[in-house]
Amino acid sequence: MTEFKDLLVVVDNSKTCATRLDVAVHVASRFGAHLTGFFVTEPPNFPVLAQSEFPAHVRPPSDYGEMQHQAWRAAALGAQQRFRSRAEVAGNTTE
Hints:
By secondary structure, the protein is mainly α. The chain has one domain. Helix content is about 45%, strand content about 10%. It contains two helices and two strands; from the N terminus they run βαβα. The protein has helices spanning about 15-30, 65-90; strands at about 5-10, 35-40. A two-stranded parallel ribbon has the order 1-2. α1 links the parallel β1 (about 5-10) and β2 (about 35-40).
């Protein structure tokens, strides 16, 4: 039987993430494997209007990029917390 030493699991904010984490944690626990969570964010999305000379009421707010960054950071931190809480309960080493 193949033994797993390191497992990589995609962590996101989807409804299926909890099941995916539970399976990964179970497999890692069974084989004493190290578990790594992987979270991906979208590339920045700056609407064309943000770079144009349209009137201010048509353009996104001047801090639009910062607002996106904060939303992505919050999503990543939430995913990280879910990953760690599930993995650590089972006693897995994580990263």
